[in-house]
Each structure stands twice: as C-alpha cells, then as structure tokens.
Amino acid sequence: MKIKRKVLSLALTMAVLSGIMGVNAGASMNWYSGSNRVAFRNTSPIRVSAQNLGTVSPGFNFSARVAESCTQWRAALGVNVASGQTASSAHIRAYGGSRAVIERAVGEYNTTYAGTNINPIPHVTIGNISTTDGVKSVRRYDTVSEMYVVQLRTESSWHSHYINLTRQTTTHELGHTLGYVGHTTNDQDVMYGGNQPQFTLRNNEKRHLSQIYDRFR
User: Fold this and answer.
1) In-domain check, residue 31
2) In this predicted model, what pLDDT tens digit does every residue of 98-126 receive, in sequence order?
C-alpha cells in the first residue's frame, strides 16, 4: 500500500510539473520582453492590409510603411507576412490617420501614443514554456487583429526623422499583432515602449518571437 501511494504521489508530482512546464520540457527559451506572455499566428501567409482613415498627408505614405514592416518581420520570423492584402481577407488590418480620427475609431486612446493595437479576445492558450526569465504563457491568435498608427505631420513633404518615427511605430505595432506581447527596456529597440527613429529590428527582438514561431508553427 505504501508503494502504491508513493507511485501515485510521483505520478501526481509529474503531472503538476508537466502542467507548469506545459508544452515545453526542453531547454529554456530566450526571453526579451517585460510581459509574461507571447503569441503567434498559425496561418500562411499572414495577410496584412493597410488603409488610411480620413484624409492624410502624402508624406505619410502609410501603405509603404506597412510593406516595409512586413518585410522586416517576414525576414525575422521566416514566415510569409504578406502586405497589400484586402481588409476583408486580412488577418491583420493596419490603419493610419490623424490622432483625432484614430481616437474616434478606437474609442479610449492615450493621446500621447504614436500607435496602438487590438488583438483577438478570446485567443487560444497553448500552454507554458520555460524561459531564461521563468515560466511564460504561449497563446495563438486565430482571428483578426487591428493596429493603428498616428500621422505625425500634415505637410506634404516629410523630414526623414518623422518618416523613421513612423517606420518604427508601424513595425512596433505589427510586432504586437504578430504576437510580441509587452515591451523591451532598451530605448534602441523597435519594441521599446516609446517612439524613437531607430526602426530596424535588433537580434534579441527577432529571436524573442522567431523562436516561438519555430517551435509552435
């Protein structure tokens, strides 16, 4: 009887540990976010549309900014993140416009933000993974996400500084809709929580999300 109890106790312990570790019992994954969650999309291609809300400056060139951001994330994740799609078929719908128009579209919106995103609720919880920063939760986005980017200027011709700020915001918000939850603490990162003109994804940011796509897609 004692042996059976010990076997049962060991089985329960293993079950609990399996629940804690979830889908990953292997090596710890590198973590580069202030959040305890991460997500991914399982569709191929991941279709992204771009649409102006209201009248915008030609210097905004939002569709080009979205296409550039898709190119960066496509290379980083090794998956087809396809721009130029129709909104009706898109998994991610990107909208750009003036702050006032976006505030009306989104509702409650922090007026200091250069962009924001709305991700699927509900989502599918896949399980937990062991990372270099402890146990984290993995989710899958199956339905449409929306992202919004504010037009920073109204002039027809933009200084490169504002173009690069828009590039950073667009790539940042697209990252969130692809599953990068939370922000980094390095102000030179695209996924940093503030707006800055450095718009090229850095290695730690790429690895943070690409390892999830590699593991779960």
Assistant:
1) yes
2) 989 998 888 866 666 799 999 988 899 99
Q: CA 10, CA 91: separation in Å to the nearest integer? A: 44
CATH of the domain at 55: 3.40.390.10
Buried b (16+ CB within 10 A) or exposed e, 111-127: eebbbbbebbeeeeebe
Find out whether 205 and 188 touch, Cβ atoms under 8 Å: no
Count of C-beta atoms within a 10 Å radius of residue 208 = 23
Residue 20 belongs to a domain: no
- How many residues are listed for the chain in this entry? 217
Residue 6 falls inside a structural domain:
no
Query: Distances in Å between the alpha carbon of 44 and those of 12, 39, 40, 115, 213?
Result: 39, 15, 12, 26, 12
Name the domain count of the chain. Answer: 1
Containing H/E element for 71? helix 62-77
pLDDT tens digits, one per residue of 6-18: 333 333 333 333 3
The answer to whether the CB of 180 falls within 8 A of the CB of 29 is no
Strand ranges, E, within the chain: 37-40, 46-53, 81-82, 92-97, 115-118, 124-131, 134-140, 145-150
Q: What is the pLDDT of residues 28-44, one digit of tens each?
A: 899 999 999 999 999 99
Report yes or no on 151 lying in a domain: yes
Structural domain that includes position 145: 26-216
190: nearest Cα among 31, 180, 84, 79: 180
